[in-house]
Amino acid sequence: MKYKLWVRRMSISAPKMTVKSHFPWPLKALLLVLVLGFGGAVAMWIYDLGRDFTGRSPAVSKQQLADLNEKVSTLTAERDRFSSTVNAAESRLNIEKAAQEQLGQQIKALGAENAKLKEDLAFFEGLLPNATGKQGITIQRLSAELLTPTQLRYRMLIMQGGKSGNFVGSVQLLVSATVAGKSVVLTFPNANATAAEKAASQLDFKYYQRVEAELTLPEGAVVKAIQAKVMEKGQMRAQQTSNL
Predict the structure, then answer these.
(1) 37-74 burial by CB neighbour count: b if 16+ within 10 A, else e?
(2) pTM for this entry
């Protein structure tokens, strides 16, 4: 019986036997950690190698980022400095522009005043030989022009010669015209005169006074001549006529 059992075990039909080596589990765990650590190290090495190969290394990117941040800071500082300079220059330009405009207005006003003074000087220079007329009052350079068919503008210079005191009086204007085919003489100021016409006719001066104003004419009036009279207490002191 024992022989049969021994032969059976030694034959091909004998049951298979597996030989296993027994490792403690702490050793297995340590081996697993070593394998995983080695695999992770290899993976990180391959990852870093790939970043270096493509030019995307973390060290290079940080350096580039630092350089870019420095350049941005420099450009921002320059921009702020240039912006401040431009704002200051713009403010100065606005101030200078306003000053130039004001100066231009003053020059224009002075030019107009200078033109009037030159005109007055020309009047005086032309009138020095006969500065006094009838009772010392004269009318110089009487002129008139039509601004519109119904607006007549006139101007004159009234002078007083000698060492008299202030002259107080008024100016009366007689306009010779044709209205509706009839010759008429229009008197200004009249009962319907405006406040401006009445104010312009008043005289109060010691040496001279410039008189300048506008008259309103009837519709269709054709002006031929204008005559100015200087009146004092109802008496005529001087007169002059100008044709249009």
Answers:
(1) eeeeeeeeeeeeeeeeeeeeeeeeeeeeeeeeeeeeee
(2) 0.47
